[in-house]
C-alpha cells in the first residue's frame, strides 16, 4: 500500500487544457474521492495516476517513486472501469487470474489466490461461468476481484457504481467501503455523484474545468466550502446564496442586507463589492418576529422534513425545516440563520471570504 | 444481445417471404447447377438441344481437365496393350491416348498460393494499420485514411499498363510474389477500412485493463484485441480471398507461365481437342471449392461480422 503525491499535474489535449496544475496528497490507506461534473478533468487525473494517459507536465509519486512517464504495466496499481471491462472471451476465473498470469505466477498459486479472492467477494459459485451472462452486481464483483487479486499498491476506480441500478448501487457502495476498510488499501475513486463522495470518501477533491476547487474531508467541504461552485455542487438542495452588495470589515460579525443585520462568523478579511451570503437549507429557520422577511413560494413534503422555496428581496432560497412546523404557500414569514455556519462569497471570483469558520481550511490568501 | 420485432410477422407473410427466398435461391443457383451438371456430361450431351436435365454421368470432363491427350489411328490403338486404368479407358473410347498431365493442377496451386498469400498479407498489414488508426493519434489521420481509400476510386484495371511496365522493370512479371503484392495492394484499402470499423467497436477499456494488469501494449493487442476482432478479421479475410481468387484481368495480363492462376487458364482448356465444355465446367466446379470451404468454415463469423455494429451489445 502506498501514499500518492500529485505535484503540479497538467494535461493538455491539443488546445484544450483538461487538468490545470493540480497538486494534492493521498495518504496511505485513504479512500480518496475525485468529485466533479462531467468534463471537469477528474477521470483524466485518475488515468494519469494509473498511467493510461501521460501528463503534459508535473510529477506523480506512488510510494515515493516518481512514475509520471512510466507505462501502466510498471506502476503496480489496479483499475476498476466504469463498464467493468471484463475480458469478454474469458470466464470469471480467467478474468480474475489474468493479472497474476502476467507476473508468471505458478498455476497452483494462481488457483489458491483466485479461490481466496472469490471467497472474500462471495463469487465462488460463478467462477466457471462466462462473463457475458452475469448480473451487474456480479460483474462488479468480478472486476473488483481482478483488482484485489494482485495486492496492488493502490486502486483506481472510475465511477464503478455508475453502471448499476440505483437500488443496487447503495448496497455495492457499502460493500466497496467495507472491502476497503478490510484491506486498508489506498483507493482513488472518481464520481460525479456528491452523495456517493460524501458517503464513502475519507477525503474529497472537488474539480471543475480542470481546476481543483477544494480538497478536504467531506465535513469540511460541506460546512466550509472554498468556492461558490463547491457550495452549489455539494448538498441537495445546495447552499443558498443571498446576493447583496456592500462593505465588510475584518472583525465584523454581521452583514447588512436590506437594512437587516444578519449574523456571520467573525470576518477575517475586509471586502467591498458584490457578495453572496451562503447558507445551507437546514440552517434557515422560520420565526414570526424576525425582521428579515420572505414569502413562501412552494412547499415540498419529504416525510420528516419539508423543503420550502422562499422569495426574499435577495433572491430565492430553499430551506429544510421540520415537517411538524406549519407552512403554507403564500404566507409571509420571518427568517433567522445559524450565523456561525454562514460563508460569505466574493460573487465576482466565486471564492469564499476568510472567516473564523473557514480560516483553517482555505489555502488561498 | 437481444433482438426484437415491432410486430410478429403473420404466417402468410412468413410463407410469402419463404417463397421469395427460395425463388431467389433457385435463380442464383441455376448457373451453378448448370456448371456442375455440365462437368459430368459427355461433350455430345453438353451441347445437345434441348438441354438434357437427365443424362448418363461421365467423368470424361474431369479426365480431360487433368490430362493432355493425342489422337491415334485405329490401327495404332489396336496395337496398344489393354488400358491399365479407368481413365485411360475413357480416353481410348475417343480414339486418343494420354500424353501426360495437364497444367490445371499447377495453376490451381498457383491460385491457392497467391489467393491465400495475398489474403494473409492484406489481413496482417490491414489489422496493424487499422489498430493504429483506431487507437493512436496518427498525424494527418483523416488524410491518410482517405488516401488509402482513394486507391479504390477507379477500377484497378485502369492502371494495368503502368503496372505491367512496372512489373516488367522490377522483374515481378509472372511471379508469385508479384501477384501477391498486387492483390494485397488492391485489397489493403478494403481491409484497413473494414477492420478499423471493427476495432473501433471494441472498447478501449479492454486493452487498458490488460495494460493495468501488467501486459505490454503488444501483448494487450494480441491477447485481448485480436480475439475480439476475430469476427471482423474473418469476414474481411473472406472478402479479400474472394477478390484475389476470382481476379481475371490482371492474371491474364501479368501471368503466362509459372505464376498463372486458374482463372486465365480455365478458358484455354477449350482449345485442346475441340470444344470441350465438360472439361471447362469441371475446371470451374473444382475452382469453386476452396472459396466455398473457406466461407463455410468462417460462416458463423461472417454472419456476425456483417451485422456487427448494427446490434448494440
Automatic annotation (TrEMBL), chain A:
Upper classification of the organism: Bacteria, Pseudomonadati, Pseudomonadota, Alphaproteobacteria, Rhodospirillales
InterPro entries named in the record: AAA+_ATPase, ABC_transporter-like_ATP-bd, ABC_transporter-like_CS, ABC_transpr_MalK/UgpC-like, Mo/tungstate-bd_C_term_dom, NA-bd_OB-fold, P-loop_NTPase, Transp-assoc_OB_typ2
Organism annotation: Hwanghaeella grinnelliae
Sample GO molecular function, one term: ABC-type transporter activity
Alphabetized Pfam families for the sequence: ABC_tran (PF00005), TOBE_2 (PF08402)
Keywords, in A-Z order: ATP-binding, Cell membrane, Membrane, Nucleotide-binding, Translocase, Transport
Name by which UniProt lists this protein: ABC transporter ATP-binding protein
ABC transporter domain span: 4-234
Cellular component terms (Gene Ontology): ATP-binding cassette (ABC) transporter complex, substrate-binding subunit-containing
The family this protein is said to belong to: Belongs to the ABC transporter superfamily.
Keyword Plastid annotated: no
UniProtKB/TrEMBL annotation, chain B:
Cross-referenced Pfam families: BPD_transp_1
Residue ranges occupied by any ABC transmembrane type-1 domain in the UniProt entry: 108-298
Gene3D superfamilies assigned: MetI-like
Chief location category: membrane
Alphabetized UniProt keyword annotations: Cell membrane, Membrane, Transmembrane, Transmembrane helix, Transport
GO terms classed as biological process: transmembrane transport
InterPro entries tied to this protein: BP-dep_ABC_trans_perm, MetI-like, MetI-like_sf
Localization of this protein: Cell membrane
Domain of life per record: Bacteria
Gene Ontology cellular-component annotations: plasma membrane
UniProt key word Transmembrane helix: yes
Segments passing through the bilayer: 21-40, 112-133, 145-167, 179-199, 220-245, 277-298
Membrane topology of this protein: Multi-pass membrane protein
PANTHER family registered for this protein in UniProt: ABC TRANSPORTER PERMEASE PROTEIN (PTHR32243:SF52), MALTOSE TRANSPORT SYSTEM PERMEASE-RELATED (PTHR32243)
Family of the protein in this entry: Belongs to the binding-protein-dependent transport system permease family.
Protein name: Carbohydrate ABC transporter permease
Organism: Hwanghaeella grinnelliae
Amino acid at each position: 500500500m502506498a501514499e500518492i503525491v500529485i505535484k503540479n499535474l497538467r494535461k493538455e489535449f491539443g488546445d484544450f487544457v483538461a487538468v490545470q496544475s493540480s497538486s494534492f496528497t493521498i495518504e496511505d490507506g485513504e479512500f480518496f474521492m475525485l468529485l466533479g461534473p462531467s468534463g471537469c478533468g477528474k477521470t483524466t487525473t485518475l488515468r494519469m495516476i494509473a498511467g493510461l494517459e501521460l501528463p503534459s507536465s508535473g510529477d506523480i509519486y506512488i510510494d515515493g517513486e516518481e512514475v509520471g512517464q512510466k507505462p501502466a504495466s510498471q506502476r503496480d496499481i489496479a483499475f476498476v472501469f466504469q463498464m467493468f471491462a471484463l475480458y469478454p472471451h474469458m470466464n470469471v476465473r480467467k478474468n480474475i487470474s489474468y493479472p497474476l498470469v502476467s507476473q508468471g505466477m505458478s498455476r497452483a498459486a494462481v488457483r489458491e489466490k483466485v479461490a481466496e479472492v472469490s471467497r472474500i467477494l462471495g463469487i465462488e459459485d460463478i467462477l466457471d461461468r462466462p462473463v457475458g451472462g452475469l448480473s451487474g452486481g456480479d460483474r462488479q464483483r468480478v472486476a473488483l476481484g481482478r483488482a484485489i487479486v494482485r495486492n496492488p499498491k493502490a486502486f483506481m476506480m472510475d465511477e464503478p457504481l455508475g453502471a448499476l441500478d440505483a437500488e443496487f448501487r447503495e448496497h455495492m457502495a457499502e460493500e466497496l467501503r467495507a472491502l476497503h476498510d478490510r484491506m486498508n488499501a489506498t483507493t482513488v475513486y472518481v464520481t460525479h455523484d456528491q452523495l456517493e463522495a460524501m458517503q464513502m470518501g475519507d477525503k474529497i477533491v472537488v474539480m471543475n474545468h480542470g481546476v481543483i476547487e477544494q480538497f478536504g474531508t467531506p465535513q469540511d467541504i460541506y460546512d466550509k466550502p472554498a468556492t461558490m461552485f463547491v457550495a452549489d455542487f455539494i448538498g441537495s438542495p445546495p447552499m443558498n446564496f443571498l446576493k447583496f452588495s456592500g462593505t465588510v470589515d475584518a472583525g465584523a460579525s454581521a452583514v447588512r442586507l436590506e437594512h437587516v443585520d444578519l449574523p456571520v462568523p467573525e470576518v477575517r478579511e475586509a471586502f467591498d463589492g458584490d457578495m453572496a451570503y451562503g447558507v445551507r437549507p437546514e440552517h434557515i429557520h422560520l420565526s414570526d418576529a424576525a425582521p428579515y422577511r420572505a414569502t413562501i413560494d412552494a412547499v415540498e413534503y419529504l416525510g420528516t422534513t419539508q423543503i420550502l422555496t422562499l422569495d426574499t428581496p435577495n433572491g430565492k432560497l430553499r430551506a429544510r425545516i421540520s415537517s411538524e412546523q406549519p407552512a403554507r404557500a403564500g404566507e409571509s414569514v420571518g427568517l433567522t440563520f445559524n450565523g456561525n455556519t454562514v460563508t460569505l462569497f466574493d460573487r465576482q471570483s466565486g471564492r469564499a471570504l476568510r472567516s473564523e469558520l473557514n480560516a483553517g481550511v482555505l489555502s488561498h490568501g | 444481445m437481444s433482438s426484437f420485432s415491432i410486430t410478429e410477422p403473420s404466417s402468410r407473410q412468413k410463407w410469402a417471404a419463404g417463397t421469395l427466398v427460395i425463388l431467389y435461391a433457385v435463380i442464383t443457383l441455376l448457373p451453378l447447377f448448370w456448371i456442375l451438371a455440365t462437368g459430368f456430361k459427355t461433350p455430345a450431351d453438353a451441347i445437345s438441344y434441348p438441354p438434357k436435365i437427365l443424362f448418363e454421368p461421365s467423368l470424361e470432363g474431369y479426365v480431360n481437365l487433368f490430362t493432355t491427350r493425342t489422337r491415334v489411328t485405329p490401327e495404332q490403338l489396336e496395337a496398344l496393350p489393354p488400358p491399365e486404368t479407368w481413365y485411360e479407358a475413357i480416353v481410348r473410347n475417343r480414339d486418343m491416348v494420354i500424353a501426360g498431365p495437364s497444367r490445371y493442377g499447377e495453376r490451381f496451386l498457383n491460385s491457392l498460393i497467391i489467393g491465400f498469400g495475398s489474403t494473409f498479407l492484406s489481413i496482417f498489414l490491414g489489422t496493424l494499420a487499422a489498430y493504429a488508426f483506431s487507437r493512436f493519434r496518427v498525424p494527418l489521420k483523416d488524410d491518410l485514411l482517405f488516401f488509402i481509400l482513394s486507391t479504390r476510386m477507379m477500377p484497378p484495371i485502369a492502371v494495368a499498363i503502368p503496372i505491367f511496365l512496372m512489373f516488367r522493370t522490377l522483374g515481378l512479371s509472372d511471379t508469385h510474389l508479384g501477384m501477391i503484392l498486387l492483390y494485397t495492394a488492391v485489397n489493403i484499402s478494403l481491409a484497413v477500412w473494414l477492420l478499423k470499423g471493427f476495432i473501433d467497436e471494441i472498447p478501449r477499456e479492454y486493452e487498458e485493463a490488460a495494460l493495468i494488469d501488467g501486459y505490454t501494449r503488444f501483448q494487450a493487442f494480441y491477447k485481448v484485441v485480436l480475439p475480439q476482432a476475430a469476427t471482423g478479421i474473418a469476414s474481411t479475410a473472406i472478402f479479400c480471398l474472394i477478390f484475389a481468387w476470382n481476379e481475371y484481368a490482371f492474371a491474364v495480363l501479368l501471368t503466362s507461365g509459372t505464376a498463372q492462376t486458374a482463372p486465365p487458364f480455365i478458358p484455354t482448356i477449350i482449345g485442346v481437342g475441340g470444344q470441350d465444355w465438360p472439361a471447362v465446367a469441371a475446371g470451374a466446379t473444382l475452382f469453386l471449392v476452396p472459396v466455398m470451404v473457406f466461407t463455410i468454415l468462417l460462416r458463423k463469423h461472417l454472419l456476425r461480422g456483417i451485422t456487427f455494429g448494427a446490434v448494440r451489445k
